[in-house]
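Following the same procedure, sequence and fold were stored together, as reproduced here.

>
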Amino acid sequence: MESYYLDWANLLLRWVHVITAVAWIGASFYFVMLDNSLEKPEDQESLDKGVGGEQWAVHGGGFYNLQKYALSPKKLPEHLHWSYWESYSTWLTGFGLFTMSYLWNASTYLIDKSKMDWQPGAAIGVALAFFVVFWIVYDGICQIFGQRKNGDTIVGVLVAVFIAFAAWLACHWFAGRAAFLLVGAMMATTMSGNVFFWIIPGQRKNVAALREGLPVDPIHGQRGKQRSVHNTYFTLPVVFAMLSNHYSFTYTNQYNWIVLLLIMLGGAAIRQFFVVRHRFKLGNARNPIPYALFGIAVLGLTIVWMKPEPAAEPAPGAAAQKVSYGDVQKIFEARCYMCHGAQVQMKNVRLDSPDQVAAHAQAVYQQAVVTKIMPMNNATGITDAERAMIGKWFEAGAPTK
């Protein structure tokens, strides 16, 4: 029953996490687009009010005039819309999922003893340290170099180098699936940290100063804008990391940390295209298509580089190997009964009887042969030859007699 309730909790948490993430990413993308689409007002009334830029838009059958003040309106309205609960809710539900799936079952999902044979408590502590250390280093880089000449470039290079190091370390310490998710969660934590520690507090200080009639310190707006821009470039890499657990060919690759970095690089380049294209449409930037082409090229070359070697053709005249149920039953007993036998039935799957094997044959083939997700982190040491044997058995009709 514990497994059943955990599955429901996982489903509901994941559902809420996706919904809140869509809301957060949507708001982030929208405001980046808006900032890069503003035009100087043409009417004197807007200029007199201090409007620095505006966008006319049509949506849902209505017209909208969105205005941004160069400094601040003469009088702040009583009610202001704040965008922060989307970020906090996304992080809280994401951390809940990470705890339930990876920390609660660290021995199964987090630890790969062929890489690092440590106790669950140590693995959990180090995984959580990734969140804290990355935030401290990232925040320090921003504060030390962010306001210097060419600060944005310096910060971008240093943060990219640190992400690369973190990806290398995670993929050498943890199971590949967990490592990819850990790097994504590390970056997502920093995104929420930007909102919690800098963007919202800075906005609150500005609003308080305006309500009291005091001058506004421009540093709050500058820092908030800087961290918001960082968040938008983190977004696509983070989304890939969160989806990667469905595609084992990425995190089981021998050079999985390079795979992760290349796909993140491609995603960041494509995001740059969408950021710049709005300014390009107004004539304020060069054509951003090279960014998109670069991102697509990186992804394409990664696909070509990762392609598996073609299967060896059987020798002429060689008889096809026949695999019986008895052959695969021995593999199931050695590699699968630990989690799918009489004592434990993970995901309500049993493989210790012909009837149960017949009922789950398609899933076994998909998980063990096609995606190679199971056994989880290959904890039981299944070999490629054994996977191939299961594949031949399934392709022969999955006989159970």
In short: The chain has a mean pLDDT of 88.
